[in-house]
Amino acid sequence: MKQLLVFMLFVGIFQNDLIAQKQSKLKKKEAVIYQPIAALFDGMREGNATKASDAFIEEATLQSYFKNKKGETVIHTESISNFIKAIGQPHDEIWDERIYKIKVHDMGKLAQVITEYQFYVGDKFSHCGVNAFNLVKINGQWKIAQIIDTRRVKGCK
Question: Per CATH, which fold does 2-150 belong to?
Answer without folding.
Answer: Nuclear Transport Factor 2; Chain: A, (3.10.450)
